[in-house]
Design goal:
378 residues, Alkaline Phosphatase, subunit A, Gyrase A, domain 2, four-stranded antiparallel sheet
């Protein structure tokens, strides 16, 4: 493949300023040897701080903040900008943040990941079969975590003697309660040094309503109010607010509408709808590639070997799992198109907003920083 193709899409191969770099700044701060280069701006901000809180609002990328008035608050307190990893989807991006490593290294390369030993793809986070939505049976709990384990940044910090914790949304009906709980942790545990808080919104709402929905503005206003309160209550905590990726309004294309593709496709595409891999009948790879490039020209189609060789999934030593899990091709959206296969998904896909492609709107992430006298009002 000519290098020129990749020069057209720098988001594919520029990994120096990503969520992985942010994660390695946190590791560096708490005495863990970094796996990769850190972010200088974040290193500087954290240099003299004793306590750190990291809030991740799913899909609240820079473009989302820019397109809603309430997002101005976080842009006004922006420390720097970084990129999501490839693909820019939650399972890959948050795992990179929590491991300090790229998807190529961890094997967490998408929302839906093919397991050759199961002969099916699974949705890694909810632990269910991708084709039916059924939960994996007893004995296969947290399958991806066991298949591709990694040491979290909390565990690595704890091994260095630091008090590091996390808060996930499963026990909180509203994210305001989750952020209140984060504040309570710092106020009741004087030894707490690092806290990671993952919040499901606005991703959930944008999938259903679209990124431009008025409901997204309401969520951002709630985000501003909650973070403002947290910062005022904890002026001695260096607070960072980030996203794992952005989101865009999408247009859906049916792979099975193309006869030459429908005839050779063996299963629902996996990884993600804008960054997909495929299972294809043996010996039909060339026919698939020819038909795909003809009918879906806005997608960059790479062979598995090209995707690995060109470090599409990030830097570092690729895990052997990449060779095992990837189909013969990876298709990456370069515009607003997303893929589904009606023969395997008869109801289609009704999501209005999505991500995982390589557009600036879904890749760029604002890192907002608050501390001490820099106490916002709202």
């Amino acid at each position: 493949m000519k290098k020129l193709v990749f020069d057209q899409y720098p988001a594919l191969t520029n990994h120096k300023r990503s969520l992985v770099a942010l994660s390695n700044s946190l590791l560096r701060k708490f005495d863990v040897e970094p796996f990769h280069k850190s972010l200088e701006e974040v290193d500087t901000f954290l240099a003299d701080k004793k306590k750190v809180a990291l809030f991740l609002f799913d899909a609240a990328g820079k473009s989302i903040l820019e397109s809603h008035p309430a997002g101005r608050f976080f842009l006004d307190h922006m420390c720097t900008v970084c990129q999501s990893v490839n693909p820019s989807t939650t399972a890959a991006a948050t795992t990179s943040l929590l491991s300090g490593k790229f998807p190529a290294e961890t094997g967490w390369i998408g929302w839906s990941i093919y397991m050759p030993e199961l002969k099916r793809a699974i949705d890694a986070f909810p632990n269910r079969y991708s084709d039916t939505g059924e939960a994996l049976p007893l004995g296969l709990e947290k399958y991806m975590y066991r298949r591709c384990p990694y040491a979290s940044i909390f565990e690595l910090m704890q091994k260095k003697g630091h008090n590091a914790k996390s808060l996930f949304p499963w026990d909180y009906p509203f994210f305001e309660e989750q952020i209140d709980a984060a504040s309570a942790l710092f106020q009741t545990d004087s030894s707490l040094e690092f806290l990671y808080v993952y919040i499901l919104e606005p991703d959930h709402t944008m999938h259903e309503e679209g990124p431009a929905s008025y409901k997204v503005e309401e969520i951002l206003e709630r985000m501003v109010s909650s973070i403002s309160t947290f910062v005022r209550e904890n002026p001695d905590v260096a607070t960072l607010v980030v996203a794992d990726h952005g989101q865009i309004a999408v247009e859906w294309l049916d792979l099975c509408a193309v006869k030459e593709i429908d005839e050779v496709l063996l299963a629902k595409p996996f990884l993600d709808a804008r960054f997909a891999s495929f299972l294809i009948k043996e010996g039909k790879e060339e026919a698939f590639a020819k038909a795909f490039r003809k009918h879906f020209p806005s997608f960059l189609l790479l062979s598995k070997e090209e995707a690995i060789e060109k470090h599409i999934f990030g830097e570092g030593e690729p895990t052997a799992f990449l060779q095992e899990t990837l189909g013969p091709f990876v298709a990456i959206s370069t515009d607003k198109k997303a893929l589904y296969a009606s023969r395997f998904e008869p109801d289609g896909n009704k999501m209005k907003g999505h991500h995982a492609g390589i557009l600036k709107e879904e890749k760029e992430i604002c890192i907002s920083c608050f501390y001490g006298k820099d106490i916002p009002t709202f």
